[in-house]
Amino acid sequence: MTPIQDCIVNKNHRINPIWIMRQAGRYLPEFREIRAKNPDFIKLCLNENLSSEITLQPLKRFDLDAAIIFSDILMLPHGIGQEVKFKKNFGPELSLINFDKIKNTEEKDFINKLKPIYNLLKIVSSNQIVRNKKDLIGFIGAPWTLLVYMINRKSPKLKLNDNFFNDKMLIGNLLNIIEKFLKLHIKNQIESGATIIQIFDSWAGLVEEKHLSEYIYNPTLNLVNYIKSFNTPVICFPREIKNYKEFCSTVNPDVISIDYNVNPEEILKNINIPIQGGLDPRILLEDKETVKKHALKYLQIFKDVPYIFNLGHGILPETKPETVDYLVKFVKDAK
Ligand code: CP3
User: Containing domain of residue 90, as a range?
Assistant: First the structure.
């Protein structure tokens, strides 16, 4: 059994596995070299030879316990016909929604369009570094976070426009379509070799209390149950959600990934499923002593429960690879 799977099923598990959100990415010079030659990000995600190489890059450097596929949550809108572009120093930019086009997307066309992602999973899961020893994490964006990008057409920063909820019909219809294609995307990732699925709900913190069931709990629960029906563990990352306890008791993921604003001691008191993450990615910009001090804090707080070491959001591009090396070794050596 892999270290992460053991941590999930074995309540007495006391060795901390580690992987890092956005571990395949811009802090690695070998990634930047490939990226510089491939200005179209979506095309790069759909190039299975390069995307599998990028997925393996961090595992060649560090003793991580999982690979996460090099892809993006916005491959879903791309797959159903909403154009996605990534602009330098701006982030994603999506075209206006053409609802009829989205509604009429055929499942086989969606799978064909995203086939290189499934091929990437096949390539990586049969690679020596990963096979039988490490988990291969597939992922999706949660329906809410995808809805935010699809309607807002760019990252929302701190709050949504006041007119975001204007067209309730469109929102309801979109959520249904998003859920249908997310299920297809999940099924194909698992059948191609994903051993765990993580659901990224990066904008969960924007939802008001009165809308939580409609936009977060119900749609996420449907997907969590769907993933579990394959006997595959599911990790949820509802970033900045106000009530992690209520989220866990309602949605029931196998693992809850906490963001860096969460007080780990409070979480320990309130939650009794395996916990992942928490460390502020900005700590990795500091010196080794500071990294050690903060990593140790998480290890000590979670020493008696199953805990997967990770960050509280994606690793920052300015992070030095040596610091990641130091962190991984420190966590692996800590008993
Ligand atoms: O974790 C990994 O290493 C796997 C790859 C991965 C990417 N995106 C690659 C990527 C994962 C898991 C994601 C998830 C993702 N994508 C999320 C959820 C996690 C989070 O950060 O909140 C979101 C919201 C997106 C959407 C997205 N993709 C944004 C907002 C951006 C631009 C800003 C940014 O963070 O770079 C991207 C682009 C993106 N996705 C890059 C990478 C490596 C950078 C592309 C580049 O080189 O310019």
Answer: 26-275
Distance 22 CA to ligand 1 centre (A): 7
What is residue 161's predicted lDDT score, i.e. its pLDDT? 83
Say which CATH number the domain at 92 has: 3.20.20.210
CA distance 231 to 195: 9
Asked if residue 66 lies in contact with residue 136, where contact means CB atoms within 8 angstroms, the answer is yes
pLDDT in tens, 196-215: 999 999 999 999 999 999 99
- State the total domains in the chain: 1
State the greatest distance between any 2 C-alpha atoms of the chain, in Å, as a whole number.
56
- ∠ Cα 320 323 327 (to 5°): 150
249 CB-near residues (< 8 Å, 6+ apart) = none
Using the predicted structure, report yes or no on whether residue 11 has a pLDDT greater than 90: no
Q: List the structure tokens of 143.
A: 């329906």
Q: Ligand 1: which atom is nearest the Cα of residue 45?
A: 9
pTM above 0.90, yes or no: yes
Instruction: Name residues contacting ligand 1 (CB within 6 A).
Output: 21-26, 35, 41, 68, 70-74, 86, 91-92, 139, 155, 200, 202, 314
Condensed to tens digits (0 to 9), the pLDDT of residues 139-195 reads 999 999 999 999 999 999 878 888 888 899 999 999 999 999 999 999 999 999 999
Residue 5 inside a domain? The answer is: no
In a domain? residue 1? no
Identity of the residue numbered 147: L
Rounded CA-CA distance 225/231 in Å is: 10
**Is residue 114 in some structural domain?**
yes
Q: Give 235's contacts (C-beta < 8 A, 6+ positions apart).
A: 137, 196, 197, 198, 199, 253, 254, 255, 256, 257, 276
| Both tokens assigned to 218 | 């119900």
